[in-house]
Request: fold
Amino acid sequence: MPHESQTAAPSMTPQVMGIVNVTPDSFSDGGRFVSAERAIDHAMRLVEQGADVLDIGGESTRPGAAPVTEAEEVDRVAPVVAAIRARWDGAISVDTMKPGVARAAVAAGATMWNDVTALGHAPDSLGTAADLGCEVVLMHMKGEPRTMQDAPHYEDVVGEVVAYLAGRARAAMAAGVARERIWLDPGIGFGKTLAHNLALTARLDALTALGFPVLYAASRKRTIQAIDPAAVDADDRLGGSIALALEGARRGARMVRVHDVRETVQALKVHMAVAAAAGRV
Reply:
């Protein structure tokens, strides 16, 4: 029998995090916003389309991606964060695994650190997060970007991901990060097969049961192509991206990270209106 929380309607509309990649090798936009000026313009368009949070990334974490230096990543990210902050007073996230980049971004105006390594990349990651006092997203990733999709294996993907993130949350709190500032992300597509991604989506309740808000991020990912082989290009995955965002919302995600903000905001509005009409919220 399905878990009750798997089919329950969401009690509130999830926030929408819009993606701003300042990288030349992003899987989804191919470097279209690599210049600071283009990235800033794109960010402001996402705000106009309804983004609640902007996630600024200066290093690609797509499968097979090569790392960049801290100095280069700061040079990409910090000016964009500062320019957005000068125009907008909303929430700005920095998508980085490097504590030095997080420090520079928060100094420029960021309010959230979104870390694919769950503050495990450097010895001072946990302490830096505590010092900064910003919100943090702890994500699960098996391996590292260059090799994470090389035959990932789990005995129990849901149990292992939940246990790992629970442990990282405990470590963050022990280091001084306030519990109310911690978000969890199951890491769809990060060291996981299609079956793993679907299981984590279907059992998102196991993660929300830990009591932390959950960020769900599946926009334009290859898991959609695995279901629909015709969706070779990332731009051809809008339908699948919206379907997964709605599933994440239905199963308890408090935020969805997406490329297509306008369409996702509209889909969530319709989804919540139907749920309200059914008397479930």
User: Anything to note?
Assistant: The CA atoms of residues 125 and 137 lie 12 Å apart. The chain is about 45% helix and 15% strand.
